[in-house]
Design a protein that fits this description.
By secondary structure, this protein is of the alpha/beta class. The protein is 39% helix and 14% strand. The chain contains 16 helices and 15 strands. Strands 7, 8, 9, 10, 11, 12, 13, 14 and 15 form a nine-stranded mixed beta sheet that branches. Strand 7 (181-184), helix 3 and strand 8 form a beta-alpha-beta unit. Helix 13 runs antiparallel to helix 14. Mean pLDDT is 83; it is low at 101-117, 125-172 and 212-218.
């Protein structure tokens, strides 16, 4: 950004490190806060947040001359709230005849004020950069990262792991691709993904395979239509209309049927069309789909996602991609909208293998947690105390806390279907057999999930495996 001459009270666009320009005001720093050595900078308070930072002069632009430019390149709820806060500030200032006081230290009018609460000071290399505050959130969760920091990780193997470019579905610092996006499958995961794609300004055409069978799914599609999505009549139509088509369905059979079935994806594939399979399936299925898509001149990428319905809704999925690297790059803004991190793992099949291993570990862990809770009860120990102790130890995590709380409350509303985690365990065990590698823990957990399925828990959350131990 060009160097500008500013004074206390000026409104600016300030850019900190890798993060997008944000509206702020030049203020006086607290008396005990020293200016960084060797830097020509101003102390800036960001609107829509309690954050303050020393910003280099060359990273500042006057607010009004660049307002339209910044609004065009930045989108999202928090960004709009920050701009609205600036406009409110200007209206109040106008009513007061242009007079104001700077409450961040020395005033730029006669009155002086000291801060009423500690300032959150950001640094250029701060690893814990604050988020812009969403007024609708509770104080405990009001601070989120300005941008999802996605580090680059290089490995000395053919499966180079590289995370995507910085961005976030939370604050809207994403420039959506101009490519037309298709999405097939509006289940627990797909719904959240599509919602975030639309929020970030992508042009999306959707299709769901159960619309004709399940009346409420028509209403489900209508919700996305109201948000700006277009409706495709068949998978083939969606693919023919779009540049990149994503698919997220339940299992290998559904994934194959979607591509090879009547009016399927394969009928809409033309040279250059991109197909991205996000379903968690086995490597053999992925290889087959890749081959048939490529045989028609299509470009193929597998990109299964790690997470749950809640994580999908929040746009915080972890995406594991493999296959055509150019498709991965073309999907950059989409992956940024739906996830916090994406990895490129090399050749087709690698993402499927890695995802099955991850879900195998998660499924086995969930079965062990359920086993611990029921053993505590059987031996006269408090399950609540067990959870309290667990949450203070090395195994503490959001996953453990949420799943245990759900179990203790008897709430098994699906966040990740039990039948799907059992499917993943089964596929992981089969993969182990192919590699002649033992998977005894996964095999034991799989039997518990099979027992839970026999107890009619398939469509409940994976935490309902708990019921297999008490029946």
């Amino acid at each position: 950004m060009a160097t500008v001459h500013l004074r206390i009270g000026d409104l600016v666009w300030g850019k900190l490190g890798r993060y997008p320009p944000w509206p702020g005001k030049v203020v006086s720093p607290p008396k005990d806060l020293k200016k960084p050595r060797g830097k020509k900078c101003h102390f800036v308070k960001f609107f829509g947040t309690e954050d303050h930072a020393w910003i280099k002069v060359e990273q500042l632009k006057p607010y009004h001359p660049h307002k339209e430019e910044m609004i065009k390149i930045n989108k999202g709820k928090r960004f709009q709230q920050a701009v609205d806060a600036v406009e409110d500030f200007l209206k109040k200032k106008e009513k007061q005849g242009g007079k104001e006081q700077n409450s961040e230290g020395k005033g730029d009018s006669k009155g002086k004020k000291t801060p009423t609460k500690p300032l959150k000071i950001l640094e250029e290399d701060d690893e814990d950069l604050s988020a812009l505050k969403d007024p609708s959130e509770k104080p405990a969760s009001s601070m989120e990262p300005i941008s999802k920091r996605l580090k680059v990780v290089e490995e000395d193997t053919r499966s180079t792991s590289i995370q995507a470019a910085d961005s976030t579905a939370i604050n809207g610092s994403i420039t959506p691709t101009d490519k037309r996006i298709g999405f097939l499958g509006l289940g627990l995961m797909g719904s959240g993904i599509v919602s975030n794609l639309l929020k970030m300004g992508h042009v999306v055409t959707v299709w769901n395979r159960t619309v004709e069978k399940v009346p409420q799914d028509n209403q489900h599609c209508d919700l996305f239509i109201q948000e700006g999505a277009r409706l495709g009549r068949t998978p083939a139509e969606v693919v023919s209309m779009c540049d990149i088509t994503f698919s997220c369905v339940s299992d290998p059979k559904a994934a194959r049927d979607l591509v090879l079935g009547p009016s399927g994806v394969l009928q809409g594939i033309r040279p250059g069309k991109c197909y991205v399979e996000m379903s968690t399936v086995d490597p053999e299925t992925i290889t087959e789909l890749s081959q048939v898509i490529s045989s028609r001149g299509g470009r193929f990428l597998e990109a299964p996602v790690a997470g749950s319905q809640q994580v999908s809704n929040e746009g915080m999925l972890v995406i594991l991609a493999a296959g055509d690297r150019t498709v991965y790059e073309d999907c950059s803004s989409c992956f940024q909208a739906m996830g916090k991190t994406s990895f490129f793992l090399g050749e087709v099949g690698n993402a499927a293998r890695m995802m099955l291993i991850l879900n195998m570990v998660q499924g086995s862990f969930m079965a062990t947690i359920a086993e611990g809770l029921t053993l505590a009860q059987a031996t006269g120990q408090s399950q609540h105390t067990f959870l309290d102790i667990l949450s203070q130890g090395q195994m503490a995590s959001t996953f453990v806390d949420q799943k245990c709380q759900n179990i203790l409350q008897g709430n098994f509303k699906p966040d990740y279907y039990l039948k799907h985690i059992q499917k993943d365990l089964r596929l992981a065990i089969s993969m182990g057999d192919t590699a002649n590698h033992p998977t005894p823990m996964a095999a034991a957990a799989n039997e518990v999930y099979k027992r839970a399925k026999a107890l009619d828990q398939s469509d409940n959350d994976m935490s309902a495996v708990y019921r297999a131990y008490i029946h």
